[in-house]
């Protein structure tokens, strides 16, 4: 279901704990229904023939439900150095699809986590794409988390921390507001308010276009957030100048206060404006206490980089300034929305200090698992045990 549709449905639910808890229960129940029965999981893990039978049977009965994973599996097998020259592609593809059915892992997660080398008990230590949903639905009040479904609403709530001008546009009545914005901010960043993974992010120079045509073209693509461009500091630009490189800081609100279990760098490649791993960017782990990069860089095809391949900057040992201020800012923002207990903040560093890029109420856990090369399910569940959950 599209984010905008879900947003409309949830907005109609009364803001009462029993009702918002019911939303979480329904979403969890729906997510759990996507997993195949435990008996089939055990049977498939015990026999390659049974595994192939289960996958083929599911494809016959519900090909549409697995079509995205099939397409993604083919892309991973074709692009990843680990698999593209393998003589065992069919078996790997079957195992990828079985892991999606049994545990909720998408083929790109299968690759990143090295699942072709792991047994069933080891696989259960990792948080899958589907399991992530179950955990987020358990932690976050989904009505309160609506704020993060719409980038314009997120901006309005946390405007103080953005430290830059922005407007939302969605219909012809916003033309005058758009024209006034272009006068003061001729070059800006456009984002679809329901977009994700950097797919709808674009740098726009309005001086090169007919403003009326530009405006109508943008609103024809849905509601948009237009932001003043972030000018990152030299310490961030040194990593890759073309992209606004960010830190993902995950905050989790426990009964004993807000904690930050994971921080990592997201840096783009030369010529790219966005830093997302899904858009070819590179991730590197950062020590939460010191702000020092402690791992090599990794992309989502598992390529390891000692240095950034374009800028030549060595990842390990790179230190980010005013780190405690960054953490304090993220904790302060998290305090403003206490019913959303797990949030992924993307922040950038400018000459004026740290600024928020956006917040993610459905933050993924693939990043920490890629860079630290181990499953974090037990770690996250230990933090959840110290929370007042929705269900």
Keywords:
391 residues; alpha+beta; D-amino Acid Aminotransferase, Chain A, domain 1; 5-stranded antiparallel sheet; 4-stranded antiparallel sheet; 16 helices
Chain-averaged pLDDT: 93
Task: Report low-confidence residues grouped into runs of 5 or more.
Answer: none
What top-tier CATH class of the largest domain fits best?
Alpha Beta
Strand portion, in percent?
15-25%
Encode the helix/strand succession as letters: HHHHHHHHHHEHEEHEHEEEEEHEEHH
Q: Please report the distance between the alpha carbons of the first and last residues.
A: 22 Å
Can you count the beta strands? 11
Share of helix, binned: 40-55%
* Rg estimate, integer Å: 22 Å
Structural notes for this entry:
The protein is built from 16 helices and 11 strands. The protein is an alpha+beta fold. It has 3 domains: 35-137, no CATH class; 140-149 and 232-384, 2-Layer Sandwich (D-amino Acid Aminotransferase, Chain A, domain 1); 165-228, ATP-grasp fold, A domain (Dna Ligase, domain 1), CATH 3.30.1490.20. It has a 5-stranded antiparallel sheet, with helices on both faces. Strands 1-4-2-3 form a 4-stranded antiparallel sheet, with helices on both faces. It has a two-stranded antiparallel sheet with strand order 8-9. Helix 3 (38-46) crosses helix 4 (48-79) and helix 4 (48-79) packs across helix 5. The longest helix is centred in the first third of the chain and has 32 residues, at 48-79. The mean pLDDT is 93.
């Amino acid at each position: 279901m599209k984010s905008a549709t879900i947003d409309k449905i949830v907005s109609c639910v009364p803001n009462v704990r029993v009702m918002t808890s019911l939303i979480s229960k329904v979403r969890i129940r729906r997510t759990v229904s996507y997993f195949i029965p435990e008996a089939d999981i055990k049977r498939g893990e015990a026999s390659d023939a049974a595994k192939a039978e289960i996958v083929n049977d599911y494809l016959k009965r519900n090909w549409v439900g697995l079509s995205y994973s099939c397409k993604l599996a083919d892309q991973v097998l074709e692009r990843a150095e680990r698999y593209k020259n393998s003589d065992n592609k069919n078996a790997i593809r079957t195992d990828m699809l079985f892991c999606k059915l049994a545990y909720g892992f998408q083929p790109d997660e299968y690759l990143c986590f090295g699942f072709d080398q792991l047994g069933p008990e080891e696989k259960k230590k990792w948080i899958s794409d589907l399991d992530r949903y179950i955990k987020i639905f358990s932690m976050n009040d989904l009505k309160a988390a609506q704020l993060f479904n719409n980038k314009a609403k997120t901006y309005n709530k946390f405007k103080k921390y953005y430290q830059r001008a922005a407007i939302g546009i969605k219909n012809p009545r916003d033309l005058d507001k758009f024209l006034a914005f272009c006068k003061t901010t001729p070059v800006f960043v456009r984002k679809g308010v329901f977009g994700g993974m950097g797919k709808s992010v674009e740098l726009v120079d309005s001086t090169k276009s007919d403003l009326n045509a530009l405006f109508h073209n943008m609103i024809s693509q849905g509601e948009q957030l237009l932001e003043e461009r972030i000018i990152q500091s030299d310490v961030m630009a040194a990593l890759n100048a073309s992209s606004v490189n960010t830190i993902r800081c995950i905050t989790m609100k426990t009964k004993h206060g807000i904690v930050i279990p994971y921080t990592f760098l997201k840096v783009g490649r030369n010529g790219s404006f966005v830093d997302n791993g899904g858009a070819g960017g590179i991730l590197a782990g950062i020590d939460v206490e010191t702000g020092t990069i402690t791992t090599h860089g990794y992309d989502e095809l598992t390529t390891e980089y000692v240095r950034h391949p374009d800028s030549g900057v060595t990842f390990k040992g790179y230190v980010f300034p005013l780190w405690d201020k960054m953490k304090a800012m993220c904790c302060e923002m998290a305090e403003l929305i206490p019913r959303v207990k797990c949030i992924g903040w993307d922040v950038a560093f400018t000459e004026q200090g740290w600024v928020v890029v956006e917040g993610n109420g459905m933050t993924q856990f693939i990043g920490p698992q890629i860079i630290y090369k181990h499953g974090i399910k037990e770690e996250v569940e230990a933090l959840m045990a110290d929370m007042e959950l929705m269900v």
